[in-house]
Design brief:
Chain A: Pathway: Protein modification; protein glycosylation. The structure holds 2 protein chains of 2 kinds. Chain A is mainly α. In chain A, about 75% of the residues lie in helices and about 0% in strands. Chain A has a domain at about 60-155. Chain A has 7 helices and no strands. In chain A, α1 (about 5-10) runs parallel beside α4 and α6 runs antiparallel to α7. The longest helix of chain A has 27 residues, at about 65-90. Mean pLDDT of chain A is about 70; it is low at about 1-45. By secondary structure, chain B is mostly helical. Among the domains of chain B are: about 210-215 and about 225-330; about 525-730, Rossmann fold (3-Layer(aba) Sandwich), CATH 3.40.50.12610. Chain B has a 4-stranded mixed sheet, with helices on both faces. In chain B, strands 1-2 form a two-stranded antiparallel ribbon. In chain B, α1 runs antiparallel to α8 (about 145-160) and α30 (about 575-585) packs antiparallel against α31. The longest helix of chain B is centred in the middle third of the chain and has 28 residues, at about 480-505. Chain B is globular and about 100 Å long. The chains are: A mainly alpha, B mainly alpha. Chains A and B meet through α2, α3, α4, α6 and α7 of A and α11, α13, α15 and α16 of B.
Amino acid sequence: MAPKHRSPASTTPTPSSASHSSPTSTTPSSSKSSSSSKPNTPTHTLDAQQIITSIWRKYLSQTPQRVKLLDAFMGFLVVVAVLQFIYVVLVGNFPFNAFLSGFSATVGQFVLTASLRIQTNPDNGREFADLSHERAFADYVLGSLLLHFFCVNFIN
Amino acid sequence: MAATGGDQLLRQATSRNTRGLLRVIILALIAAAAVSSRLFSVIRFESIIHEFDPWFNFRATKYLVNNGFYSFWDWFDDRTWHPLGRVTGGTLYPGLMVTSGVIYHLLRFLTLPVDIRNICVLLAPGFSGLTALATYLLTAEMVTSPSAGLLAAAFMGIAPGYISRSVAGSYDNEAIAIFLLVFTFFLWIKAVKNGSVFWGALTALFYGYMVSAWGGYVFITNLLPLHAFVLICMGRYSPRLYVSYTSWYALGTLASMQIPFVGFLPIRSSEHMSALGVFGLLQLVAFTDYVRTQLPSKQFQTLLRALVLIIFVVALGGLVLLTVTGVIAPWTGRFYSLWDTGYAKIHIPIIASVSEHQPTAWPAFFFDLNMLIWLFPAGVYMCFKKLTDEQVFVVIYAVLASYFAGVMVRLMLTLTPIVCVASAMAFSQILDTYLDARSPKVAAKEEGKSDSAKLAAAAVLPEGLRSTRSPVVGVYAYISKLTVVGASLVYLLLFVLHCTWVTSNAYSSPSVVLASRLPDGSQHIIDDYREAYYWLRQNTPDDAKIMSWWDYGYQIGGMADRPTLVDNNTWNNTHIATVGKAMSSKEEVSYPIMRQHEVDYVLVVFGGLLGYSGDDINKFLWMVRIAEGIWPDEVKERDFFTARGEYRVDDEATKTMKDSLMYKMSYYNYNSLFPAGQAQDRVRGARLPAQGPELSTIEEAFTSENWIIRIYKVKDLDNFGRDHQSATAFEKGHKKKRAARRKGPRVLRVE
């Protein structure tokens, strides 16, 4: 694990990973890279760094711009959630309602965005055959509206 | 019955539109049947709120209608749990009251001024019609056969298991909760099928509504994650599952936290942790799934499984650790009693004392579900045959609900919907097979048993019947068809008869008003409860505190409108134990307790004269047990049993029993109704002692017509500062002493 490429590479899987546990999300990527290195490189095992860079390149080249936008948004949400969590750990959770609604707003928005990403991803066209992108986006807006209504109501 | 009739009609109807119209008409008829079969109690008695809890809901609804939503939300009720009071707005499930409040205002807006009481009485039947509709929708998602949905709706409409909690006047949370339960499940299935945020959000919305309506929402909270988890374990993970589950969980949890009574429970209590765990698990699974599409690999499957397993174990360990360290609230007692039926009796008598928390007796299943109970396994088996995502749900639901229904009587309610769905699937399979097979049969006869006819029949028939097809006298014979269809018709008719009989005989009694038959067969109404409560309302000051066992707290609050010490909310065990102690102790002990709690009147229910078995002497042991839980040194259950371990009220009753306030209040003056030495308790079939009990600290204030309710007034402190015993002794002894004095001097004079 060379430190050079580690940081940009590890941010790539994170946006689409679990929202609440950033340490666990790096575990699969690293463990997977070590085990899946065999089929990728039949002759001799490469180190993890190269695999991650190859994933990163593949991601950059093959992902549509829209999906990248969603990924960036999801990454932002994870950062916000982590920040809130750190704040609670350091300062204390006095207005617990406020923390909860803030945190769950990020989690909920993350999940909804992930759903939108899954639904609009052309790879999943088989699963969502009768779901147009516009419909998916309308659902997304509805879900977000509900989510933020509940959060604002809960924040006290 | 309507469904079967309609079923045959459906076969004849050719065009799609006609079928759709017929379906609507049939559903409307089923809804009408569901509503009307719940009206027995209104017709027999009157439009009245039943039982105990509904009286509180009714009172809260009146408060909501009169004072508006916000003051209802912040309602602090100082007329219950005297002197503690109760933060009612924050400790109830407001869904029911808000629903009827909305209906009330809507009707008024439409210039239909309907009394709020009538809305409350008829709310449960109204929603049962909707439940039948929701069951239709749910079943229609499960199978393609349209008749299954209609059958399920008809079953749901008249199944006694559901009627028991939704007759007119039974204004309880379950009235709307079962509808919400079924409808939430329908939306969930729809969401899983379509993988749409829209349906997921709708599921969350109705889940939120359900949370606001009934504590049984925990059933949904655990069933949906379990469904998702089983699907993942079966290797059926799909992006659709991710979308539906996460959108439900993220929105639904927030929605449930809006209810003050639930509050932070979804992240604090263990009951909700499975949902959170599956949520986290799904994130991981989705992520790994995504990575897999980026990096196709053969070893990936095994890696994924191992990863999921490890994370699951780690999460479970973390949960256990958090529970042990106390960050997450441990399981509640009511939950423990779900796994260990003996738990409540040992640790929390107050939960065990409620009859609806007792384990179910076996005949109750047949009584409440009749033929559905044996069709039910067949339906579940049919789910195994195809096992799509939604049929996995049926299987899980069936297993869980059967277990819970066996543990707690009231949970029969959650079992009923799935029994209706599963048995309708089985039944419609039978009907479809034996009614559909008619057309290939006709063709076969015309063509003279040619092979082509057999092929046509094979195309129509389901797979499982192929083996029975080869003999000529198989299922095609008219005789077999007639037998099966005729038998199912008879079963259906019997089912309808049974349901109607059960509803009219077992579940339509308001229990506030009792009915009995006179020798000439005419109905005699025993209205002691209302008589007594009305007496309280008319003859006592507005703030007179009434002490009674907690069963009657809500009724006193609702009908007599007087403050009570304890009521059916049972949130404070110590307070209830205090009342139990006052009831089960000697007068000298009880009097200070009653003075401390400013009790003005004591109310007991006594069925000895009429043979009414649900009276306080029969509940007395629970009072003793609950009191013993708090004061094991002062109240002992053993003392209330005779040396031979019998619970007796006659001559052989123990001294503790005879001295207890409850015994005295029940039998005070009872002797005077009978010739000397003939006093008889008709509930316990016991002859009472010739000498009735004496009371000194309280005095009889009111006894209802049939002696069911007896009200005593707590005496004020004595004017001369004596204790009441010596005061009464003095009152009685006064005459004796005077007589003795008269005698005394005479004796002296003689000497």
